[in-house]
Automatic annotation (TrEMBL):
InterPro entries: NGN-like_dom (IPR006645), NGN_dom_sf (IPR036735), NusG-like (IPR043425), Transcription_antiterm_RfaH (IPR010215), Translation_prot_SH3-like_sf (IPR008991)
Transcription among keywords: yes
Name of the protein described by the UniProt record: Transcription/translation regulatory transformer protein RfaH
Coiled coil: none
Taxonomic lineage from the root: Bacteria, Pseudomonadati, Pseudomonadota, Betaproteobacteria, Burkholderiales
Origin species: Limnohabitans curvus
SMART domains membership: NGN (SM00738)
Gene Ontology CC annotations of this record: cytosol
Domain NusG-like N-terminal: 10-108
GO BP of this protein: DNA-templated transcription elongation; transcription antitermination
Keywords: Transcription, Transcription antitermination, Transcription regulation
PANTHER family attached to this UniProt entry: RHO-INTERACTING TRANSCRIPTION TERMINATION FACTOR NUSG, TRANSCRIPTION ANTITERMINATION PROTEIN RFAH
Length: 170
């Protein structure tokens, strides 16, 4: 059921949790069953065979979005689809995603979604044992990590940090 055939008054976007590294497989299999799905992708640079390569990866590892009619559509086949782990739920209710968020992801220019920080940005570590420490953002490192240059014991140290633990230093 693609977006042309769904009555949007009864549809909502939901989150599908996929099996590890099977986002595109789940997307393809769900689309083959007629579901309207969206898998936001982003370009990342990775070091492979001592060369930097730009590759497309899912923006949200192990997640994709599916638009479902909450009154007439049969949701049963979703759980048994190859690549799908489950529908994300809070208690018995599947987790709805605001349509504005999906529209933002679809309409935003790709470079706006690639990295939250630019090299040289002043950042602060927001949690963990180094909470409150300030540093300079150096580079993105894969899906969820970044290199940050911090001053520890009077020496600059290059640390590999989780991106979600960094905040812009104001």
């Amino acid at each position: 059921m693609n977006s042309e055939t769904l009555d949007t008054t009864h549809t909502a976007w939901y989150v599908v949790h996929t099996k590890p590294r099977q986002e595109t497989r789940a997307l393809e299999n769900l689309q083959n069953q007629g579901f309207d799905c969206f898998l936001p992708m982003m370009q990342v640079q990775k070091l492979r065979n001592q060369r930097v390569q730009t590759v497309a990866e899912p923006m949200f590892s192990r997640y994709l979005f599916i638009q479902l009619d909450d009154t007439t559509q049969n949701w049963g086949p979703i759980r048994s689809t190859l690549g799908v782990s489950k529908l994300v739920s809070f208690g018995p209710q599947p987790a709805k995603v605001p349509p504005e968020f999906i529209n933002f992801l679809k309409d935003a220019p790709p470079e706006a979604l690639e990295h939250m920080f630019a090299p040289g940005d002043s950042v602060q570590i927001a949690n963990g044992p180094l909470q409150g420490l300030e540093g300079k953002y150096m580079a993105h490192d894969g899906e969820t990590r970044a290199f940050v240059l911090v001053d520890l014991l009077g020496q600059p140290q290059k640390l590999r940090m989780a991106v979600e633990s960094l905040r812009v230093n104001i």
